[in-house]
Amino acid sequence: MACSGNRGEKCGGALRISVYQISGHATGPNIALGRPAFQCSVGHGGSAGRAVDGNRNPQWAGNSCTHTHGENDPWWYVDLGRSVTVDHITIVNRRDCCSERITPFDVHVGDSTVVTRNPKVGGHHSFCPIDTERVVPCGGRRGRYVGIRLPGKRRVLTLCEVEVYAAPNLALGKPTVQSAVAHGGFASRATDGCRDPNWGSQCCTHTPGQTCPWLRVDLGAQVSVQWVVVINRADCCRERLNGFTIHIGNDPQVDRNPRCGGHHTIPAGKNKDAINCNGQRGRYVGIRLPGHGRVLTVCEIEVYAGTVTRKRTSEVRGTEGQGCGEHQEGDNWVSDGQDCTCDQNEVVCYEVICGVDGKEKPEEDQDGMLTCPEPAEEEETARGLLDENMDDWIDDYKE
């Protein structure tokens, strides 16, 4: 993972060191450029659209900075047009005067047009007065709207540019296989970048009717998966995908890898859903339909990494000895008595579910981490896979 924005400088009489860790792939287009933007009020002609006009001039005279009236909790947001996985945003602050006005500020990403209803990215952020721009990592936060808000009374919000960069789809063009092929619906269609949900577009996969059909994407290396986006067929047969499971891990056999959540169903009236996997780690991402006579059709699978992670129950609850659990939106927990595992830094924790029926008991590996047992005849293959990827795993844990 590449790092950018490293700097050390005097700020308020003390040395300040800032390190922003940004995905090495997040150098694509600024997806906020020219998009509709809104703010709570307009002062001195500083309209909201100036923050997404592509002009990074930090001087007010450049006619490219926004301006609100002095008011309580002023806000600004941009509409990206659809929900995306955000890697980071870059904010250009005013420099000719008043640079201190922006500190502290909050960043929100979500699907509501009301800024404060969307999840906040981190805590309060700040600008050193000598900085022109600030990069805020968003850790794979997903949403259509990116907002900035100044908490407090009688504050003025001025932004000279806001740039938004999407996280890359890690599954795009990666090797993909499935349990069987019917009607020419090859597995590679799920990672070809075509999101058309109609069969006639030749963008959708298709298996014959099978027991527990599956599809698997090989990401090439172990990553922390934040989101898996599944696009369903829309012209017919939407119900076929009901009750699917997502599996992420380092075993090429889908059902040997831990599940991401339980059984999923795409909401009625929609043809896609984003499954939050909260940093679950693995090289392979699989989708599986449990049951007999099932037909698996997906029109695209997208995989996004992120740094928003689950924590130990004791960390989130603020108590000791509570074991390991997960914290997700809505405060859903894995109970302390269930089988959980954490990575070596104890920041990613998830329930380990093994076996076709989910009832197989996990085992502890040599590092004390829970993993699904493997048949004895395949132990050598599993060891080979472990050795092959050990360097990548060590590098990942150092990030």
From TrEMBL:
Fucolectin tachylectin-4 pentraxin-1 domain boundaries: 28-168, 169-309
Region described as Disordered: 360-399
UniProt xrefs under InterPro entries: BG_Antigen-Binding_Lectin (IPR051941), FTP1 (IPR006585), Galactose-bd-like_sf (IPR008979)
GO MF: fucose binding; metal ion binding
Keyword Metal-binding recorded: yes
GO biological process, one term: regulation of cellular defense response
Pfam family, one: F5_F8_type_C_2
SMART domains referenced in this protein's UniProt entry, alphabetically: FTP
Regions of compositional bias (Acidic residues) in chain numbering: 388-399
Keyword tRNA-binding listed: no
Keywords carried by this UniProt record: Calcium, Disulfide bond, Lectin, Metal-binding
Described purpose of this protein according to its UniProt entry: Acts as a defensive agent. Recognizes blood group fucosylated oligosaccharides including A, B, H and Lewis B-type antigens. Does not recognize Lewis A antigen and has low affinity for monovalent haptens.
Subunit description: Homotrimer.
Membership in a protein family: Belongs to the fucolectin family.
Name of protein: Uncharacterized protein LOC118408624
Source organism phylogeny: Eukaryota, Metazoa, Chordata, Cephalochordata, Leptocardii
This protein's encoding gene: LOC118408624
